[in-house]
Design a protein that fits this description.
Blueprint (H helix, E strand, L loop, with lengths): L1 H22 L5 H23 L11 H23 L4 H12 L3 H39 L10 H6 L2 H14 L6 H11 L2 H11 L8 H25 L4 H11 L6 H4 L8 H25 L1
Helix pairs in contact: 1-5, 1-9, 2-7, 2-8, 2-9, 3-4, 3-5, 3-10, 4-10, 4-13, 5-9, 5-11, 10-11, 10-13
Length: 297
């Protein structure tokens, strides 16, 4: 227990610092968006290139994206049915569906790195492929369903996604046994090492809770985290995963709701405050849940 607390202390401390910086007005929404952009366009691609070409990829690793895709589809269907059953307003309904189906793997990434190292990160990155694809396909199309065709530039967004391009390139390098030269590897490690601190500061600075319908909020938390956890556990058993692969599936499946809708700045058909509150509430639950799962798994 002490070892776990020692490993996770920097993660919790950096996240709390982000909250304090938000409360003291040192960081605001614009600053947190800049942090996320730095991670998305620079530090996360560097981290991918510094990790994936060097890890040993086994055949059972390729079950991870399949499980991730199943999770996205099932939670999408469950959230759609739940939102209709609750007669939710359209703006809140959109947030419920997208927030439930997209896993905020950025939040669990620091925990996995602290506890499982580069091998855990490599598996998380592979697991994230369908999640990332769904962000710019299913989620974006659903959010834009009442918009004109000019808003639906999903293919362009996928092609221009630096983390996705870096992930696919790094996997190809691994398959071909290509490695960056030592000096490039050193630079990549240095830049990639900024990913976790910047992510945690950005997540902390984005953390806010406002008053919303408690039933709608509870439904979002249950769909994303409770249903995700149960599905992840069941799918890991169904595909006979064990050890690290099983841990990554369960932890990722129970990840908080993402800030996905907050990144769709051109779309007005959703409730941004509900999106922020749902994401923040899920992060509170995840802060309590993830250490317990790390002990159990």
């Amino acid at each position: 227990m002490f070892d776990l607390a020692f490993l996770l202390a920097p993660t919790f401390a950096t996240f709390l610092i982000g909250i304090v910086l938000r409360k003291t007005s040192i960081l605001d929404d614009n600053a947190s968006n800049i942090l996320f952009k730095l991670v998305h366009h620079l530090t996360l691609p560097a981290l991918l290139f510094s990790v994936l070409p060097y890890v040993v990829i086994s055949r059972d690793l390729f079950f991870l994206p399949l499980i991730s895709f199943i999770l996205v589809l099932v939670t999408f269907a469950a959230a759609t049915l739940t939102g209709k059953a609750l007669f939710m307003p359209e703006k809140s309904f959109t947030v419920l569906v997208i927030g439930s189906m997209i896993m905020n793997l950025s939040f669990v990434m620091p925990f996995i790195q602290s506890f499982y190292g580069d091998d855990g990160l490599a598996r998380l990155f592979v697991f994230n492929i369908p999640n990332e694809l769904s962000l710019y396909s299913i989620a974006y199309v659903f959010a834009c369903k009442n918009r004109g065709p000019a808003e639906n530039k999903t293919a362009e967004k996928l092609i221009k996604s630096p983390p996705l391009l870096a992930l696919l390139t790094a996997l190809l390098m691994n398959a071909l046994a290509l490695r960056p030269v030592p000096i490039v590897t050193a630079v990549l490690h240095s830049i990639g090492g900024l990913t976790m601190p910047l992510l945690l500061l950005g997540l902390g600075a984005s953390f806010r809770i406002t008053k919303h319908n408690p039933l709608h909020l509870a439904a979002g938390i249950a769909l994303r985290m409770l249903l995700g956890l149960l599905l992840g556990w069941w799918l890991a058993s169904l595909f006979h995963l064990d050890g690290l692969n099983r841990a990554i599936v369960v932890l990722s499946a129970s990840a908080p709701a993402g800030f996905t809708t907050l990144t769709f700045h051109s779309i007005e058909k959703f409730d941004r405050e509900f999106a922020a509150t749902l994401a923040a509430s899920c992060m509170i639950v995840a802060t309590l849940l993830i250490p317990v799962l790390l002990i159990i798994l």
